[in-house]
Amino acid sequence: MIALSFDTDWMAPEDLERFLEEYPFPGTGTFFLHCAYALEKLRRHELCPHPFPVAPEHWKPSIAKMLQDFGLTPTGVRTHSAIHSHFLELCLYELGFKYTSNTSRLFLDDTRPVRLAWGCWEMPIYYMDNLDLTMAKYWPSLDHKPLSREVLLRALDGDSLYVFDFHPLHVCLNTPTLEYYLRHQAQLKAGTSPFELQYSGRGVGTFFKEFAELMTVRNLPSVSLLQALQGWIGQAPVSTSAAA
Asked: Tens of pLDDT along 66-124?
């Protein structure tokens, strides 16, 4: 089961709209939003908050405010920098959330939802683009090669849950290496479109397009994280779009 998810950090509305147009994929995804986007094409996907770290006593009111401001129903959360705690789980339970997606089980074949305290579930991440690009630097003993087709084929051929986490910023920039991103980071944060700085060779963008093509050929569309959780635990699916 493949579940595509996206963290919208630093994406202007016009760039995210262009991403949706130029990087289509089969099925439904989950978008973790750091701000509100009035984009019609987003509404067919599951939309969830992507909150910034705050002091523990502010978790619940800050996430509740995001739900209200963005017009979302509580289904899932992925925090910036994947910060997690038992207290956060309690806050999410009280707000009515079903799951988080913060932990990483990179490139492992036995990934599946994990039950947490107070009734929430964790949807472990099988692939994350920025971790893929930095693993060789921070874990050199693995002899890891980023943007590997084998990672995609393993997910297409396997029978576990495969949660992919892409940043549209890296897809549109077509980030090939950590160094390339860091070289352009200041421009991106100042508002330059990633499309203007797009790398012309093989990078996250070409890797994402390759994956979308493979999913189409194999007839294995993505599901949202909520749909994946419901399928795994045998619940009837519900709508994953933003609240009306």
From this structure: 999 999 999 999 999 999 999 999 999 999 999 999 999 999 988 899 999 888 999 99
Euclidean distance between the first and the last CA atom of the chain, given in angstroms as a whole number: 28
136: pLDDT confidence band, cut at 50, 70 and 90?
A: confident
- Residue 219, CA atoms < 13 Å, CB-side half-sphere: 0
- Are the CB atoms for 70 and 33 separated by under 8 Å? yes
- Angstrom distances, CA of residue 100 to CA of 88, 104, 152: 10, 12, 23
C-alpha separations of 163 from 108, 206, 224, 225 in Å:
11, 19, 9, 8
Report yes or no: 126 and 242 within 8 Å, Cβ to Cβ. Answer: no
Instruction: Classify domain 2-168+202-231 at the CATH class level.
Output: alpha beta
d(CA 42, CA 18): 12
DSSP annotation string for 26-57: SB-EEEEESS----GGGGGSEEEE-PPP--GG
Amino acid at 96: G
Pairing mode of beta strands 121-122, 99-100: parallel
For the whole model, what pTM was predicted? 0.94
* Contact indicator for 32, 50 with CB cutoff of 8 Å: yes
